[in-house]
UniProtKB/TrEMBL annotation:
Signal peptide: none annotated. The keyword Ubl conjugation does not apply. The chain crosses the membrane at residues 45-66, 100-118, 124-145, 166-189. Keywords: Membrane, Transmembrane, Transmembrane helix. This is HPP family protein. InterPro entries: HPP, TM_HPP. The lineage of its organism: Bacteria, Pseudomonadati, Bacteroidota, Chitinophagia, Chitinophagales. Residues 41-199 form the HPP transmembrane region domain. The keyword Transmembrane helix applies. PANTHER family: TRANSMEMBRANE PROTEIN DDB_G0269096-RELATED (PTHR33741).
Length: 205
């Protein structure tokens, strides 16, 4: 029979071996994760490029005819962020149609509303902050969080007189029209290949 000291020594040896095995397993998992994350899917990148180019080109061309250059660039910036999500990260919850449409439209409504509530130029900085913060809360409550929506709300405040004159028509055009174009192209392009599905798992809302 083993003595108490021999049992303790055997226990320590077993514990050290188990610890060593866990470390080796952790290293293998880390290597696999690093390998997987550094893989470049050329086909996926190709479709991301096609979708983003077609979407932003279409929105930019449409807005070019009736918006000043400043507003057009700002709006394209907002939609450009959306393009990264819906064409480059199609499985993200933030990229789904509910979030894309709801996030932009609700944020646009919030932005215009805040502009009417705080119409004084000297308080524009406050209106901008209030519009973005309120838009975020509305998106969270309605489960339509879409980060570019913050820029859409901001444009309603910081845009040129041409944007201000639109009032709540701003929600319909250029926002709703631009979102519709982005969504249409996302549905077409992302489903032209077997490596993607949009909306993710076929869920629209």
């Amino acid at each position: 029979m083993l003595s108490i000291q021999e049992k303790k020594a055997a226990h320590r040896e077993h514990h050290q071996k188990a610890k060593f095995i866990r470390i080796r397993r952790g290293i293998r998992v880390a290597r696999y994760v690093m390998y997987r994350e550094t893989l470049i899917d050329k086909k996926n990148i190709y479709w991301s490029f096609i979708g983003a180019f077609a979407g932003i080109a279409s929105v930019g061309l449409l807005s070019h005819f009736y918006l000043p250059v400043k507003d057009n660039l700002f709006l394209i910036g907002s939609f450009g962020a959306s393009a990264v999500l819906i064409y480059g990260h199609t499985q993200s919850p933030l990229a789904q149609p509910r979030n894309l449409v709801g996030g932009h439209l609700l944020s646009a409504v919030v932005g215009v509303t805040v502009r009417y509530l705080v119409p004084w130029p000297e308080w524009e900085w406050l209106a901008c902050a209030l519009a973005v913060a309120a838009a975020l809360v509305v998106m969270q409550v309605t489960k339509t969080v879409h980060p570019p929506g913050g820029a859409t709300a901001l444009l309603a405040i910081a845009g040129s007189p041409a944007i201000r004159k639109l009032g709540f028509w701003y929600v319909l055009s250029p926002v709703a029209s631009g979102v519709a174009i982005l969504l249409l192209i996302a549905v077409i392009v992302n489903n032209m290949t077997d490596i993607r599905q949009y909306p993710d798992k076929g869920k629209w809302f």
